[in-house]
Amino acid sequence: MHRMLTFFLLLSIACSSRAHGQNRSFPGHYISVQGDKVLGNFPDYAQWTRNPERVDFVDHASGSTLVLTPDNCKGFVVDGHDEYISFSGQRLINPIEDIEVIRDRAYSSLHDTLAYIKTFLRLITRTGGYELYAFSDNIRTNFFYRQAGGSFEELKYKMYFDQNQVREMAIYRQQLHNLFKDRIEKQNLERTLEKLVYREDRLKQFFEQLFPLPQTMQAPPKNAPGWVVAAGAVFNQIQVTGDRVYAPEFASYASSVAPLLSVGYLRPIDRSFGKYFILPQVKFYSYKVKGDYFDGTFTRATTYQADLVVTPELNGGMNVINRDQVQLFLSAGAGILLQKAAKEVQQSFAGTNGELYAQHESKLNNLSYVLNVSAGTILKKKFVLTGTYVFPSQLLNFIHYTPKLSGFQLRVGYKFNG
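Structure (tokenized):
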């Protein structure tokens, strides 16, 4: 089983190297300061998390490369991905993270601290005649809105330190209330606004709740999160370490096979083309692994078993091949191993096939840890095939020996988007 997983990992890395060796260029256009639409490609587009100030563009007509800046164009569009618009003006630089406020408390102020920027703002959503934009750099993230074609207004949010406490000023909630008061009441969004978090996904959702897009205009997300339900088999293995004095250490344990079910939520990390993801999940299975040896007088048999094993896990990974129809991923995770009716059973039989001479049972830990690595593929963004190696987890720490459970898991799953 270990060889199978090693082969899968090496294959994934090899395919990844080949995939990354291929250059990608993204088609799109920019709008010149005169209002002309110029078609071409963006050779260095990388779904940036921080807004660019300069962007390379290859003109289709001339084949020449132009560096786009807020001075020489009104904005640009990367087809199927992002739209940016030129902007110059003030923005807040007050901190918006607790850790920054605590670290820089001496410089924290409830007053607005402003800085001038000249950059490209990224469009988040366009709905109901309004547009929502984002700007992010190494200082903080700012959100702006405007009526289509109008001037920009920042949605203001800041934090400060006062009387040994971190405090926030969520001015953006009042701004939105003043701007859309009637609409908010009509849509029954008062409570939603009260709890609205200063995050891109939450603000986008709020704007689209205020002004729902027609079904025909709702583009399905390229890397939607979703529930993954899977079933398969686990090949359980037992390793016993110690000073080789007691029967369980001498026994040879064969792998046992048990059914496996899992439920998880696959969430791609934003602004990475869906390359990186997190996967919290819960697995359900059982095990019963038996080993024995003959000491010249008795056959000593030891069985480790549990009627139910539940492992809540948190996994993180990356798609080393990340295409529309196929993704090949690697991941690693950690979690908790919970067991029901887990025990060690030692039995002694007379001779090699004799009657039971003695039996002793010991309870195993109901709680332990679990670590794993996985490799797999997602086909058509729906069908998920996964192979997982689970590193040895300690079942109990006896005085002279320690049994550990490991395994190799194979699963076939289906991803429900949403």
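The first strand starts at residue 26 and ends at 32. DSSP finds six helices and 23 strands in the chain.
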